[in-house]
Fold non-specific serine/threonine protein kinase.
Amino acid sequence: MGPRRRLTLDYDGNLRMYSLVETIGKWEVSWQHESKPCRIHGVCGPNSVCKYDPYNGRTCSCLPGFKIKNHTDWSYGCELESKINCNRTRVGFLRIPHVDFWGYDIRYVPNSTFSQCQKECMKLCNCKGFMIMFVEPRGGARLFSEIPLG
């Protein structure tokens, strides 16, 4: 009989293969789909950012203007510190480099500038923010809805 193995979709969303080490009767990870934990969609929950350091592991943090929902479990993510309404008289946009919020797009606007994206987002009541990607030969922007970012 060959080695005993099991394939498990773990709590963090990563698919792992475990092999039984018969001499000690313990299951050990022999393979995992994603070796970089921050690449697992939503691992830190909505409205948060995941940062990975090989020495300290994964670290989650809330976006500016958000607070953690559950201090014992990051999978709950973060929530707004104050409500955003459609009467946007005092709204600002914050640049957060090297962050991607994929999967929550409401509209793609090709060949857009930061200023154009601000104006477009302000027109839409359900727009929570935008992201500009500079992909050659043309850049583009994605506008995000009220769906939590994560």
Notes: The chain has one helix and ten strands.
